[in-house]
Design goal:
With 356 residues, the chain is of the alpha+beta class. It is built from eleven helices and twelve strands. β1 (47-48) and β2 (51-52) form a beta hairpin. The strands form four sheets. A five-stranded antiparallel β-sheet has the order 8-9-10-7-11. The protein has a three-stranded antiparallel β-sheet with strand order 3-4-5, with no helix packed on it. A two-stranded antiparallel ribbon has the order 1-2. The chain is 33% helix and 15% strand. The longest helix is centred in the last third of the chain and has 18 residues, at 248-265. The protein has two domains: 85-144 and 295-354, FAD/NAD(P)-binding domain (3-Layer(bba) Sandwich), CATH 3.50.50; 149-288. The termini are far apart. The protein has helices at 2-9, 13-24, 36-44, 62-75, 119-124, 134-142, 188-199, 248-265, 269-272, 281-288, 340-355; strands at residues 47-48, 51-52, 86-91, 97-102, 107-109, 113-115, 150-156, 181-183, 208-212, 227-234, 273-279, 324-326. α1 (2-9) runs antiparallel to α2, α2 crosses α3 and α2 runs parallel beside α7. Belongs to the carotenoid/retinoid oxidoreductase family. GO terms for molecular function: oxidoreductase activity. Interacts with COX5B; this interaction may contribute to localize PYROXD2 to the inner face of the inner mitochondrial membrane. Probable oxidoreductase that may play a role as regulator of mitochondrial function.
Length: 356
């Protein structure tokens, strides 16, 4: 249990609760859920530019990282098609993957197919289930994709001013504005309470909030004096109690609750808001193809990791369909901006390609 690990090393409850947020981030679990300790390890393993456990900000936003990967691939001769939805994977008479068919009727033939989509989309939508073992299909159908995350993107006309560390008179970003700011994390019991509410179909009354101000590091993201604020919040259920829809009223009610919490730490925040974009779990599924809105393509619980991700005997990136590989977050080692699954899958695919 995460609580036991934190209690062993730390005494300060706010510090323990702040560290605990990385043990439940993107997970429909609480700090008291067995296995939550691994999720914390997953988020602090590795290093960035020699600093262990560090995270970094991508100048230009996360899209800049995608563009960098695209430019590197194009430099090696790759052809990239955007806004071209894949309809299904093409299979030969021998059952091997032979390319993909696009929704506009175009067919792209290839000797190997690597899918960065979730296991659910890859194997339940892009492949005929008759081509897959029944136990494999059942495993993918039962893969836990519950997600507690609602993402809120905010535009503000001035820098947030926190009571704990007031702004300078010139309004320039201070060191804490350039970090990840955790709110409603004074104690792990608050995280557990927020989780419990969501399990009963109710958005948390006091949500866990991770607040970042990218424009404090990257001024080009907003006009002079203005800023963009990224809010990663939980817990919000995919399905609301009583079958209530995640309509505009429900979205705005939850966002207002989040903003009220931020206002308590940084008075004047609500008055500074000039625009907001609210993405609930159903929105994340619909817009980004994340099953259940899960940012990791599936829960990072111990029963869905290592040799069992996405299914036992299929953790090595190969799938039941020869020539088809899984290279996204639904493959080992799971989610996070590290590229490990893609790199490992590419090595396996290249090894098989040399044998063809």
């Amino acid at each position: 249990l995460l609580g036991q690990v934190l209690d062993q090393w730390f005494e300060s409850e706010p510090l323990k609760a702040t560290l605990a947020t990385d043990a439940v981030i993107g997970a429909m679990s609480s700090p008291h859920t067995p296995g939550s300790g691994y999720v914390l390890l997953h988020h602090v393993m590795g290093e960035l530019e020699g600093q262990r456990g560090a995270w970094g900000y991508v100048a230009g936003g996360m899209g800049a990282l995608s563009q960098a990967i695209a430019h590197a691939a194009a430099a090696q001769g790759a052809h990239i098609f955007t806004e071209k939805a894949v309809c299904h994977v093409l299979l030969g008479r021998d059952g091997r993957a032979e390319g993909v068919a696009l929704q506009d009727g175009m067919e792209v033939r290839s000797k190997l197919v690597l899918s960065n989509a979730s296991p659910q989309i890859t194997f339940l939508e892009l492949i005929s289930q008759e081509q897959l073992p029944k136990d494999f299909v059942q495993r993918i159908q039962q893969f836990d994709t519950r997600s507690p995350v609602t993402k809120i993107n905010v535009a503000v006309d001035r820098l947030p001013n926190f009571l704990a560390a007031p702004n300078d008179c010139d309004g320039q970003p201070l060191p804490h504005h350039q970090c990840s700011i955790h709110l409603n994390c004074e104690g792990t019991h608050l995280l557990h309470q927020a989780f419990t509410e969501a399990t009963h179909g109710h958005p948390s009354s006091r949500p866990m909030i991770e607040l970042c101000i990218p424009s404090a590091l990257d001024p080009g993201l907003a006009p002079r004096g203005c800023h963009v604020v990224s809010l990663f919040t939980q817990y919000t259920p995919f399905e609301l109690a009583g079958g209530q829809p995640w309509d505009e009223q429900a979205r705005n009610a939850y966002a207002d609750k989040v903003f009220d919490c931020i206002e308590a730490y940084a008075p004047g925040f609500k008055a500074s808001v000039i625009g907001r974009d609210i993405l609930t779990p159903p929105d994340l599924e619909r817009i980004f193809g994340l099953p259940g809105g899960n940012i990791f393509h599936g829960g990072m619980s111990l029963d869905q990791l290592y040799f069992a991700r996405p299914a036992p005997t299929y953790s090595g990136y190969r799938s039941p369909v020869p020539g088809l590989y899984l290279c996204g977050s639904g493959a080992h080692p799971g989610g996070g901006v590290m590229g490990a699954a893609g790199r490992n899958a590419a090595q396996v695919a290249l090894e098989d390609f040399r044998r063809l």
